[in-house]
């Protein structure tokens, strides 16, 4: 423990390293976050992309939940006060590592300043890393730790996808988007989210329909991991992709899939994943019950549930951005 503390103090006196940039200029916040991930990774031996994935997940849910306190620093991880200081600790503002430990709190001093502050980014990240290390150091053991902390399979799955993306690309700058159809091709669309639908019972339309000719390439709209691929009686041949902002992108009524595409695969903005069709509204292989089009939906997960939101404003923005680049 003394050796680890000495390393932490020595590292805290060094300037934070700056990770190599990805495509495009990274915002300062991403640089600061990457520097912290790498620094804590050195002291804990937990891969930086594991810490980055957990933190990104927490950034996402903080933006979607009102029951979580407002984020103060660049790290989004939230550790409840009682868990930080200990459930029986009478000092609700306790920052003493010793007394926190006495009351079975998990809060630790990550930057060597003698305080365990839940408002300090490095203390929070180091504390969470040490929490995970109680379960072991390999990825499967860390995932068990994540399940015990969040108690939700969906959350562990989402964080695992983030790990895969960050490990593959080696940086955090994965916010680029693309329009789902080739800009300049013959297509049309308007805002149809919330419209009534009758097949399979009364329900609302959870997406935007982009009408186009059979076989027009359908493209991934973001960096992400394929969560779902196959047949659905409503959506026909469809693909679901989860991006780094915890948005689930749903592509339905496809004519077919790109060759070799599989669940768990990483995709990039603009990558062809299938083609426009008219599949759906019946058993596997049903097609032609409506004009060919791409149904594009977007969903958000807040750590408790997932809901649909209107993708139309995003589609318009991505389309305009691509036209400007041409």
Automatic annotation (TrEMBL):
| E.C. number(s) listed in UniProt | 3.4.-.-
Q: Which SUPFAM superfamilies match?
A: Duplicated hybrid motif
Residues spanning the signal sequence = 1-20
Does this entry carry the keyword RNA-binding?
Answer: no
Q: Does the keyword Flavoprotein apply?
A: no
Q: Which GO terms describe its molecular function?
A: metalloendopeptidase activity
The segment(s) forming the M23ase beta-sheet core domain are 204-302
Q: Which UniProt keywords apply?
A: Hydrolase, Signal
Q: Which Gene3D superfamilies match?
A: Glucose Permease (Domain IIA)
Q: Which domain of life is it from?
A: Bacteria
**Which Pfam families does this one have?**
Peptidase_M23 (PF01551)
Output this protein's name: L-Ala--D-Glu endopeptidase
Q: Which organism is it from?
A: Bacillus safensis
Give the gene name: lytH
